[in-house]
Design goal:
CATH class: Alpha Beta
Number of helices: 11
Protein name: Enoyl-ACP reductase
Helix content: 40-55%
Bound molecules: 1,4-dihydronicotinamide adenine dinucleotide
Largest sheet: 7 strands, parallel
Structural class: alpha/beta
Number of domains: 1
Radius of gyration: 18 Å
Strand order of the largest sheet: 3-2-1-4-5-6-7
């Protein structure tokens, strides 16, 4: 059901790789709510992904940008403002990748070149995106910037590997940049801490299948889906959440505040 919550709003959506991607579902929901946007992803993902299909469906243009490149991001922001016909109201950062995870390196056996690259893509890129928007004065007042994160930033999940540290950094950047963006441009910055979700990035985590089931059994409302995450993001882009900023918002069916559930306990009692 659509409510025209984003009618007349313009933005950029990073990270739609395929129809499982959280960014893909968000693009579809933003479109339904009347928002217009440019889609972007790393040039390599353009070749592998199905982003053109999404662009057609939502009447959007695609501008490739590697989130580790200032030049690419500068071009993306300038071109998006031109294409969309004005400054931006919303930006979704939905980017994550650990080279250590991909190459099977344990947390206690990191290759630091891999760590550096993964941090650059998954964490520092959020600062880079915001600094590009800030310097170009590309955001409208009362605009909204959202990045996606995971609870391994607060609590240890051994197989989440160095992405836990990357997410802790990402959440800190949201608070720090949120201060400056709020003071100077009246723009809000938040992170959504999402349940485990079966996407390309999610399934890269070792033991994902067991883990997603465990999270589901622990959460009173069950795991939040990618589509539900898209719905929540729409509310954060809308004018209904104007004073929510510098927050890490758990969107996890209650997992983060649950000590143990009956379903999980049942596995340990007769
Ligand atoms: P996904 O694999 O569909 O999306 C990750 C995206 O990052 C891809 O589109 C990929 O092309 C993009 N990317 C990688 N390197 C890039 C670069 N250098 N420049 C620009 N883009 C680049 O997976 P998903 O799950 O939709 O991930 C989106 C976000 O949600 C990530 O930040 C992820 O950590 C976060 N998240 C995912 C959860 C899950 O269980 N799937 C749980 C909580 C948070």
């Amino acid at each position: 059901m659509a409510y025209d919550l984003l009618k007349g709003k313009r933005g950029i959506i990073f990270g739609a790789l395929d129809s499982n991607s959280i960014a893909w579902k968000t693009a579809e929901r933003v479109h339904e709510e009347g928002g217009k946007f440019v889609l972007t992803n790393a040039p390599i993902a353009m070749r592998m992904g199905q982003i053109k299909e999404l662009a057609q469906k939502t009447g959007s243009e695609i501008i490739p940008a590697d989130a580790t490149s200032e030049d690419d991001l500068g071009n993306l922001v300038n071109e998006s403002v031109k294409i969309l016909g004005g400054k931006l109201d919303f930006v979704l950062h939905s980017i994550g990748m650990s080279v250590n995870v991909r190459k099977g390196r344990a947390y206690t056996d990191q290759n630091y070149d891999f760590s550096h690259k993964g941090w650059d893509i998954s964490a520092l890129s959020f600062h880079r995106v915001m600094q590009t928007l800030f310097k170009a004065d590309a955001m409208n007042e009362w605009g909204s910037i959202v990045a996606l994160t995971y609870m391994a930033a607060q609590r240890t999940f051994p197989d989440y590997n160095d992405m836990a540290d990357n997410k802790a950094y990402l959440e800190s950047v949201a608070r720090s940049f949120g201060y400056f963006f709020g003071k100077e441009k009246k723009v809000r910055v938040n992170t959504i801490s999402q349940s485990p979700t079966p996407t390309t990035a999610g399934q890269g985590v070792k033991g994902f299948d067991g883990f997603i089931t465990y999270a589901d059994k622990m959460s009173p409302l069950g795991n939040a889906t990618a589509l539900e995450c898209a719905d929540y993001t729409v509310t954060l882009f809308s004018d209904l959440t104007k004073k929510v900023t510098m927050q890490n918002l758990f969107h996890d069916g209650g997992f983060s505040n649950t000590g143990v559930s009956k379903e999980v306990m049942d596995n340990f009692t007769e």
